[in-house]
Design a protein that fits this description.
With 190 residues, this protein is mostly helical. Helices cover 79% and strands 0% of the residues. The chain has 10 helices and no strands. GO terms for molecular function: DNA binding.
Length: 190
């Protein structure tokens, strides 16, 4: 990679980092392209050279984060017992949350803005559906009598834990995750 390409990548990264923080802290709708350019230390024209719109910038951020999360959230080996698979899913979810809390603040705030989600397309819906389907299957194999409802409850619980962690600086994430997994295991074995 030549010097110009390196500089381009660094500029794109700076723009995305600044935009992600502003979108997460101030909201997508309240953040202007001009403010992103100012905070990133680039001209408005240069920003538009990389992104034709705020929506395109958001899509770039989300795509990059999804790619990073897929690399981080590796699936456990085949043949792992169902509860062990579920435990891996829960733990890796919160490890990802701790690795990039700014992205997850943005992600959670966007989920509260249906118009923004609609503009983002169906990828978010597809990921949620795939996650729910996988958990339903694993919960059924682990002995749940109502795996679909249990998967929905599990995802809602994980969302709640994530929200608390992202908004409360002293939230005891590790203790809560351990306790949640213990309760889930006892429930499935009970």
């Amino acid at each position: 990679m030549n010097k110009r390409e390196i500089q381009r990548e660094e500029t794109v990264q700076k723009i995305q980092d600044v935009a992600m923080v502003l979108f997460a802290e101030e909201g997508y709708d309240r953040t202007s392209i001009r403010k992103i350019a100012e905070k990133a230390g680039v001209s408005l024209g240069l920003l538009y050279n990389y992104y034709s719109s705020k929506e395109e910038l958001l899509k770039g951020i989300m795509l990059k984060a999804r790619q990073a999360n897929k690399a981080f959230l590796k699936q456990p080996a085949e043949g792992v017992p169902p509860f062990q698979y579920i435990e891996h899913h829960v733990r890796s979810t919160f490890e990802a949350l701790q690795q990039n809390p700014t992205f997850w603040r943005l992600h959670h705030s966007l989920r509260m803005q249906p118009a923004v989600l609609k503009a983002m397309g169906t990828e978010e819906e597809n990921e949620s559906w795939m996650q729910s389907t996988m958990l339903t299957s694993k919960l059924a194999a682990a002995g749940s009598h109502s795996p679909s409802a249990e998967a929905a409850l599990m995802l809602a619980t994980l969302d709640g834990i994530a929200q608390h962690y992202l908004t409360l600086p002293t939230f005891p994430l590790q203790d809560v995750v351990i306790r949640y997994l213990l309760q889930l295991k006892n429930y499935l074995n009970g």
